[in-house]
Amino acid sequence: MYTKDKLLHPAMPPLDTVEFEQLRRAIQIPDVRDIDYRDFKKEIENHFRNTTVNQLKGFDAFRQHDIILGCQNYIDNIISKNGIDGVQIFEHDYLYYQKISPHIKYTTLESLIAKKPLLMAMPFPGHLGTHRQMEQIIQVCNDKEIDLHLDCSWLTSAFDIKFDFDQPCIKSFAMSFSKAYALHWNKIGLRWSRSKDVTDTLSILNDSNAISKSNLYVARKYMENFSIDHLVKKYKIKYFNICRELKLRPSNVIHACFSIDRKKLYGVKKLFD
Description:
The protein is an alpha/beta fold. 33% of the residues lie in helices and 15% in strands. Helix 5 links the parallel strand 3 and strand 4 (148-151).
């Protein structure tokens, strides 16, 4: 029996699970100075690509791989290069943008400005899945020469998403383990870029091996113990049971759902306890 008093609104925290907590308590970090960044990049890239609950392709067009300290690091890097007013952002994206720029002016499909970068989440928070206008957005970005950068932080806790990253306008995208493994306490992820920018902060940090190897060690332990789809495979049946019993509209994100009228978004984390 599920009850609506455990639904979270507007918060939609990612899921945790007892096996993640058990591993967290068991990890003891040894001397990690010999971890090779190049080997780790190959491991983490393959791990993200091994999803079976989503159909993703187009990775091979992005030859430059850089370790990031979570997708927040990826986002902040784009903003630091362009300024918050130098990127275009859609309403109902990550609330962080409004926090750092309370009077932010959001863009729309119709008002996208040529040659001005667009930063957006995929899956999109306001839709809890691929943005409903994603095909049109990509077409406009291609036509107007708009560089598109995708924050895929929720993709590792999503399912039934089909997407091809190899679109001319997409210049970079990033994923992390924060939502996949509740690793917000040990942020790590990967950025894929079409080409290398030698003036880019993340490129410089990767080239100088200035990423904490302790973070890499912990992330490797999670990769060794859990597939990238662990949460979806564990909770998907229960998730749909919750939505059915509480008369909620399911989404493509395992930790969140809609009200039937789609006017409210709810986090379901407490219902999995």
